[in-house]
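Customer escalation, tier 2.

The customer says the design service returned an amino acid string that "doesn't look like it belongs to this structure." They asked us to rerun it and document both sides in this ticket. The original structure tokens are below, unchanged.
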């Protein structure tokens, strides 16, 4: 079935482009613009976009596989309140300063 009459793109062309993109990079986000570029074409009037998108949605390879959650980094050498180099001296504290009258 012809999806884009301006550029003569069929549903088969869209599915082939999506499958090719997913095979080359399994984490890529597939957009209509990327499909057009993969086919060596560009959108013209945009009248096909609703049908183009619905055709894309029928392809199982459109969804991006879930990304594994990142593990929080292991922080080493974190200063704690017990660290004498990180504690302010008593004389530098604003509440300890005497104001001149």
């Amino acid at each position: 079935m012809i999806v884009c009459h301006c550029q003569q793109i069929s549903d088969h062309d869209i599915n082939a482009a999506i499958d090719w993109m997913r095979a080359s990079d399994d984490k890529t986000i597939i957009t209509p613009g990327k499909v057009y570029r993969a086919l060596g074409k560009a959108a013209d009037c945009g009248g096909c976009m609703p049908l183009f998108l619905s055709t894309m949605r029928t392809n199982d390879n459109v969804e991006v596989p879930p990304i594994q959650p990142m593990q929080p980094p292991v922080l080493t050498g974190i200063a704690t309140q017990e660290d004498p180099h990180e504690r302010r001296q008593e004389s530098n504290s604003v509440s300890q300063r005497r104001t001149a009258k």
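Tier 2 assessment: The sequence is consistent with the input. The chain has three helices and two strands. The first strand starts at residue 2 and ends at 4. Sent an explanation to the customer and offered a walkthrough call.
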